[in-house]
Amino acid sequence: xxxxxxxxxxxxxxxxxxxxxxxxxxxxxxxxxxxxxxxxxxxxxxxxxxxxxxxxxxxxxxxxxxxxxxxxxxxxxxxxxxxxxxxxxxxxxxxxxxxxxxxxxxxxxxxxxxxxxxxxxxxxxxxxxxxxxxxxxxxxxxxxxxxxxxxxxxxxxxxxxxxxxxxxxxxxxxxxxxxxxxxxxxxxxxxxxxxxxxxxxxxxxxxxxxxxxxxxxxxxxxxxxxxxxxxxxxxxxxxxxxxxxxxxxxxxxxxxxxxxxxxxxxxxxxxxxxxxxxxxxxxxxxxxxxxxxxxxxxxxxxxxxxx
Length: 307
Hints:
15% strand, five-stranded parallel sheet, alpha/beta
């Protein structure tokens, strides 16, 4: 029997090839797959944060599965896929603790001036006369937008640091922390606002200029979810004008983000979408990817099907 053919869509997923090639005929979209691959490809290997190319999908007559390497799959319209008879798998529950760790690192790096201190020392700014003071985390109020697995993990960590926690999401749920009546109420209450919710077309720009202004000139905005959740132009304007105190971001509206866009933006700590990219998490994602592919082509239910 011929081996199933799979197509890796995003270039940064190229390292997966070595794990797929012993079992599958692997094609890579950026290499310009040969014409014959069109009638052979049965699964797409994708990163879920990128919009799924509907033209590509509809041009593959034997396509059966969208295998998402990541946990998040906000770039994939699961209902649209289901209507076309396509299954969607993903890798849930493998990196939310790592993302929460990173969120706390961003908070520490910003509030305690760790990143700024590193830059100052390297530039010769540490002199006998120079003494930098920073606020304590204890007693700070942390508002969390979205109390899913990441949000809950951030909340637990914030409590250990002696911070007060509240949250908001469109739907209420039983939780150990109070839910505010609205996002604006949460922003007004918070010293630190952590964005940890899922992204889709309904909440693009959820963190608007008004929300940012409500957080205020002493507030810190942290994003470890998706860049499109924040009105990035409004964020940059607020940071430059002083209407927002600081921002610590792991995700951006366009990725990779243009470094020139941030060159003159003050009070920022920026990381290149690495919050969930730990050795352990990536290995777990790989195991789930391979398990879902194996199950699908063996005619079994997917191990972790996206809903």
